[in-house]
Design goal:
The structure holds 2 protein chains of 2 kinds. Chain A is an alpha+beta fold. Chain A has helices at residues 3-20, 55-62, 79-89, 179-185, 188-192, and strands spanning 28-38, 44-53, 96-100, 103-105, 111-118, 121-134, 138-143, 150-154, 160-163, 170-174, 205-210. In chain A, strands 1, 2, 5, 6, 8 and 9 form a 6-stranded mixed β-sheet that branches. The longest helix of chain A has 18 residues, at 3-20. Chain B is mainly alpha-helical. The chains are: A alpha+beta, B mainly alpha. Chains A and B meet through helix 1, helix 2, helix 3 and helix 4 of A and helix 1, helix 2, helix 4, helix 6 and helix 11 of B.
């Protein structure tokens, strides 16, 4: 049996394997704005998100919901959906990952959450309090879906607000430029970065706040 | 006489080849599995395997088409001609969507390789499973959203249940393939190992018995003649005659399409999340029929890509079969080994998807 036969065979197996490397692509698009909440003494207490869904997912989400006026939904009518949303998001760690001076921080369950429906799209508002409010020189907050089922984009205007931050704090936002570019950035380096490296990170929105 | 390896040595060499393939498969799967460091099903850490430049481009393209769909459906409400745009976008989305990796293609390609299927059957299976996928999506949304006016939460739960069922089906399907192909492989292995012991003794009985499983009588007859022809030649050449695969007409014989139905069901039962979203959106716009048309066109696009992949898989295997057939007595064993490995891939995928080790396009309910 020649090497060519072996090669052909390997090709067949490799092909089926390559085809099997399951991979998601976004089905939901979220335009996000985030507020970083500070206490008076300069500690970070939590994050308040406002996530606006794309119109296709919005239509899907409100399917079957009762409303008094056709095609309009009040905050109350959307109450149970909002609750479902925040409860389900727990499984995904709210797609929000924080590190204070390099140390991973965890969030409590969301508070002050509600949905509003305007111009055929839904916006989910919720606050994620930090389990342990921290005072740090550097805070890194990343918002993304590792599996890339959801494509997170920070809003064009005023994507991030620092609420009550000490004077002199500097905010920097790194966006994933777009799907193509971020996917193409994937190279060996990405996979050599250790345990933190993964596919979805390429689509992460990274907020960095440096305080004096 | 040119130097020849003993049949035993050749058998061992072929076994090594098979082991190599199995090893490569295994290693590759482990790479996949290792992507999830915590091993927890459906955790946010269910990271994705690699994405190259091509995959990145495919992702971008399909996102682009997908995102145009909602605007086009809206436009179709007032402008009928937008429907044509919608159909085109759906078709293009289907093609690109399927070109990105997904488990449906893996199952079909592995099934075709394991079962010595023809390219023609591969194409038919691809189209049938894509059609079934579209119909399942239309039925889910048609019944739950349109007839029952169920909420997204209910629909998503139904989708999740179907997803689990489909993974279980893949695993079962793989298990059955492994059982059938494993036995064939072991028989082929025994046939090769038996050679030195009975060297010089005609062993029609043994070989024909083996062959009856794979081919019809006339095939066995051919081999018997080949056997006679070679009787006074090298003993190992007798095996050459036995490495030919069955002809396409034999495969499509009775029960052939019934077997294929299991593959169609396994792959087709799980609808694409994208199709569900498009259908619900179209329903909300009062244009459910446009959503149905879009879903069917998506399925058509998907079918074309999957069929192309199926043809490549079948061709690659045919080439391997032809190259290994004429040269070496172990060719048959070699091919049985490949089929066995392909069956194993189906099983591993099913199990991996079921346990959440292989990250798939999951249904996210929120």
């Amino acid at each position: 049996m020649g090497m060519r036969a072996l090669f052909g065979l390997l090709l067949a197996v490799a092909l089926s394997l390559a085809a099997g490397a399951a991979q998601a692509h976004p089905h939901v698009w979220i335009t996000a704005t985030s507020e970083l909440l500070y206490a008076e003494d300069g500690t970070i207490t939590g994050v308040r998100h406002a996530w606006t869904f794309d119109d296709m997912f919005s239509a899907y989400a409100v399917q079957g919901l009762e409303s008094k006026a056709k095609g309009a939904y009040t905050r109350e009518e959307l109450g149970s959906l909002a609750q479902t949303n925040v409860e389900s998001l727990k499984e995904y760690a709210y797609f929000t990952f924080a590190r204070a001076d390099g140390k991973k921080e965890r969030f409590q369950e969301p508070v002050d959450y509600f949905l509003d429906y305007k111009d055929t799209v839904l916006t989910l508002h919720f606050t994620l309090p930090l389990k342990n409010p921290v005072k740090s020189r550097q805070l890194v907050l990343e918002v993304f879906d590792r599996s890339f089922f959801i494509d997170f984009q920070m809003a064009k205007d005023n994507p991030v607000k620092l609420v009550g931050a000490p004077a002199g704090c500097q905010m920097k936002l790194d966006r994933p430029s777009d799907g193509t570019a971020s996917a193409q950035k994937l190279n060996e380096q990405t996979f050599m970065n250790g345990e933190n490296s993964n596919f979805g990170m390429m689509f992460a929105n990274k907020i960095t706040v440096d305080c004096p | 006489m040119k130097p020849q390896l003993t049949p035993m040595a050749r058998g061992l060499a072929v076994c090594a080849g098979v082991l190599l393939v199995v090893g490569v498969t295994d290693a590759a799967l482990h790479d996949l599995l290792a992507q999830n460091p915590f091993g927890a099903p459906r955790s946010p850490q269910a990271a994705q395997p690699e994405a190259g430049g091509l995959i990145g481009w495919l992702l971008a393209k399909q996102s682009e088409f997908y995102r145009q769909m909602s605007a086009t459906i809206r436009a179709a409400k007032s402008d009928g001609s937008a429907v044509w745009t919608l159909l085109f976008i759906s078709f293009a989305y289907g093609i690109f969507h399927a070109a990105g990796p997904g488990h449906g293609k893996a199952v079909i390609a592995s099934y075709l390789v394991a079962n010595r299927e023809t390219a023609r059957r591969g194409i038919v299976l691809s189209f049938a499973s894509a059609l079934m996928q579209s119909l399942v999506a239309i039925l889910i949304v048609g019944i739950s959203a349109w007839v029952l006016n169920a909420t997204a939460k209910t629909m998503c739960k139904a989708e999740g249940a179907i997803e689990i069922a489909s993974y279980a089906l893949i695993a079962l399907f793989g298990l059955r393939l492994v059982w059938v192909k494993g036995r064939t492989f072991i028989r082929a292995l025994q046939a090769v190992q038996a050679v030195p012991a009975i060297a010089g003794v005609p062993h029609d009985h043994h070989d024909l018995g083996h062959h009856h499983h794979d081919a019809h009588d006339h095939h066995g007859h051919d081999h018997a003649q080949a056997h006679h022809h070679h009787e006074h030649d090298h003993v190992h050449d007798e095996h050459c005659g036995h490495s030919h695969g069955p002809t396409p007409s034999e495969l499509a014989g009775p029960g052939g399409w019934g077997r294929g139905f299991a593959a169609i069901l396994t792959v087709g039962i799980r609808p694409c999340s994208g199709a569900i979203l498009v259908l619900v959106f179209a329903l909300a716009q009062g244009l459910f029929w446009a959503g149905i048309a879009a879903t069917l066109l998506m399925g058509l696009g998907t079918a074309i890509t999957v069929a192309a992949i199926a043809v490549v898989a079948v061709s690659a295997k045919d080439i391997a079969a032809r190259l290994s057939a004429g040269r070496d007595g172990g060719g048959a064993l070699f091919m049985r080994g490949i089929e066995f490995a392909a069956a194993g891939v189906v099983l591993l995928f099913g199990a991996g998807l079921l346990l959440g080790y292989v990250a798939a396009e999951r249904t996210t309910c929120f």
